[in-house]
């Protein structure tokens, strides 16, 4: 790790390739291109529920952890918004039909494992998810509103609406400063970077599985 590079920069640079792979997956390209129906969007939203349930189940306990604690911010929490979206997309009995793809289960299990045993690894998953939602998630929201006619920032896309973050750019700057100050030595930082890469790979595997479930007819 170069002395000139902040840890936030190191993480962003190291995971760039995996990030691009996730963003340019066939499923996401088809979804954002309007080539898939609202059912594919709803199925994707269901998969997100499992990941965020794993991320947020231990948030209260982790809030007092010296490594993960500074990152636990109530304005980021997504589970309640996801549940409103799922009720809108799948109806009031949405929980009854909820099922995780094997790739999603593997992703959620890894997040839960880190939340329970390794705060540094939890930070890696926290970063890849929430900062991604604040950035690229806004593209998905805009496309979803236009493609399937959801009310602007309303039910169906609430997951992407951070009502308590009035200035996302400033929030992301503050978050990166927290990363730069994370309580970890160089070896631990290398492990966190490796876990970021793993998080993107797990996310890409979910996209791949969704692509198999919703193939475009030739």
Q: How would you characterize the overall build of this protein?
A:
The radius of gyration is 17 Å and the shape is globular. The chain has helices at 7-14, 16-23, 26-32, 38-57, 59-62, 79-90, 102-117, 119-134, 137-148, 168-180, 186-213. The protein contains eleven helices and no strands.
Provide the fold topology.
Layout: H1 7-14, H2 16-23, H3 26-32, H4 38-57, H5 59-62, H6 79-90, H7 102-117, H8 119-134, H9 137-148, H10 168-180, H11 186-213
Helix pairs in contact: 1-11, 2-11, 4-6, 4-7, 7-8, 7-11, 8-11
Q: Which stretches of 5+ consecutive residues score pLDDT under 50?
A: none
The CA-CA distance between the termini, in Å, is: 47 Å
* DSSP helical segment count: 11
Q: Taking all residues together, what is the mean pLDDT?
A: 93
Give the overall silhouette. Answer: globular
Structural class determined from secondary elements: mainly alpha
Give the helix level as a range of percent: 55-70%
- Please describe the biggest sheet, giving its number of strands, its sense, and whether it closes into a barrel: none
What is the rounded Rg? 17 Å
- What is the number of strand segments? 0
Portion in strands:
under 5%
The H/E string reads HHHHHHHHHHH
């Amino acid at each position: 790790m170069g002395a000139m590079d902040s840890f936030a920069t190191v993480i962003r640079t190291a995971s760039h390739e995996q990030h691009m792979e996730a963003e340019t997956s066939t499923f996401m390209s088809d979804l954002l291109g309007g080539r898939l129906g609202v059912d594919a969007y709803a199925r994707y939203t269901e998969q997100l529920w499992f990941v965020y349930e794993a991320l947020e189940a231990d948030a209260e306990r982790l809030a007092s952890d010296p490594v993960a604690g500074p990152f636990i911010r109530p304005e980021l929490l997504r589970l309640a918004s996801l549940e409103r979206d799922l009720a809108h997309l799948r109806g009031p009995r949405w929980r009854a039909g909820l099922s995780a793809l094997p790739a999603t289960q593997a992703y959620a299990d890894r997040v839960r494992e880190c939340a329970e045993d390794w705060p540094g690894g939890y930070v890696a998953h926290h970063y890849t998810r929430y900062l991604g939602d604040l950035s690229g998630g806004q593209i998905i929201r805009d496309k979803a509103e236009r493609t399937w006619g959801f009310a602007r920032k309303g039910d169906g896309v609430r997951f992407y609406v951070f009502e308590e973050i009035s200035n996302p750019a400033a929030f992301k700057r503050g978050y990166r400063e927290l990363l730069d100050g994370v309580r970890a030595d160089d070896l631990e930082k290398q492990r966190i970077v490796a876990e970021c890469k793993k998080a993107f790979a797990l996310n890409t595997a979910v996209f791949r599985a969704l692509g198999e479930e919703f193939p475009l007819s030739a």
